Amino acid sequence: MKNWNRNFWIAPLTWLTALVAGTLAARAADNHLRVGYLPVTGHAKFFIAQEEGFFKAEGLDVELVEFANSADGLAALRAEKLDVGAFGTTAPLVHISKGADIRIIGGVMGEDAALVTTAENAKTIKTIADLKGKKVATVRLATGDAVLRGALDEAKISWKTDLQIFELKSPPAVLEAVKTGQVDAGLVWGPHDIRAEEQGLKVVIRSRSLQPGHPCCRLTVLVKDLQARPELWEKFLRAFLKAEKFAQDNHDKTIADIVKQLKLDPGLVRKAYYEGYLDQSSDPNQAGVAKFWQTMLKSEFVTSDLDINKFIVASVYKNALDQLAKENPAEPYWKNLEQAFAKRNELKTAAKPGDKRLSLARAAGTEEVPRVSCCR
């Protein structure tokens, strides 16, 4: 009887112990994020948040995964080999146009692309119109590629018939094609524009001159993950915003964090990140993405009748920013970002009754709700 009583209690306790252990393991897994990035200075906030402990402070276990280009990164995200990635603006919008169930929740950088050519060709290639009849190399699904095609369309030049565009694997491949004369010009981004100049090439056009203020890399997640772990994504963006502010206040340490991750010359990093043509905002920039989408449609880069605003969930960033502003009411940096957010974004969700937070389930597209302008 004694043995029976002991076994009677041991079995449930064993089951309960296993259940608790499984729950704790699941919670730990919930905090683990596989984050895709490109090896460029514009993605510095990933490195800063990791090196300075901002991810850890938010309870996140982040694994950084490098990709050579946006096309490969978005493919990995859709295959669920990543939890979040920052792979241009063109790539997520192209995937959305083809039915991908993904959402943009924030930004990493803007502008920063450049058209480079040889010193000899720079004498005749000065404007978009000068590309007619030329061979131009780009990186597949790069943001600058869509900006370029949009500018060609505005200039009444068909990118399909009036010139040849070659989509290569990476910026170094583009530079090599330009230097060896395989193409007349090539489109890259920082710090490869600086590297191009160091190798004797010339920057002839900046993307900011073609589409001022255009967004580049957007933080993109799967919609089902956004629905399943809404608070986690706010924590992620809290860490990201802290990294943004850190980069503004601590130049030398920021450069050191970038150098540690990318193994680049500190002087090149400083020039690319602080003295170049880079917008470092983490704002989702809904207005900018919507304008970019219209450019892609007009230039026939994509064909779609989707409302791209439904795929931008600005409320995640807004919640994270509001939390930081509330925790630090005397800090002007957060107030300035809130003002910028109001100009760039329109939230399409309403708050639930009695809930001060915006509904992420609705924002993720699971419910039809009236669009509400925020903060204007």
Describe this structure in words.
The structure is a single chain. The protein has helices at 2-30, 44-51, 54-57, 70-78, 90-97, 143-154, 171-179, 192-198, 207-210, 223-228, 230-249, 251-262, 266-274, 286-298, 314-327, 332-344, 360-366, and strands at residues 32-37, 61-66, 84-86, 102-107, 110-111, 113-117, 135-139, 164-168, 185-189, 202-206, 218-222, 278-279. It folds into three domains: 1-25; 31-110 and 216-366, D-Maltodextrin-Binding Protein, domain 2 (3-Layer(aba) Sandwich), CATH 3.40.190; 113-210, Periplasmic binding protein-like II (D-Maltodextrin-Binding Protein, domain 2, 3-Layer(aba) Sandwich). Strand 7, helix 6 and strand 8 form a beta-alpha-beta unit. The longest helix is centred in the N-terminal third of the chain and has 29 residues, at 2-30. Helix content is 49%, strand content 15%. Mean pLDDT is 87; it is low at 8-28 and 349-376. The strands form three sheets. The chain has a five-stranded mixed β-sheet, sandwiched between helices. It has a five-stranded mixed β-sheet with strand order 8-7-9-6-10, with helices on both faces. Strands 5-12 form a two-stranded antiparallel ribbon. It has 17 helices and twelve strands. It is of the alpha/beta class and 376 residues long. The N and C termini lie far apart (74 Å).
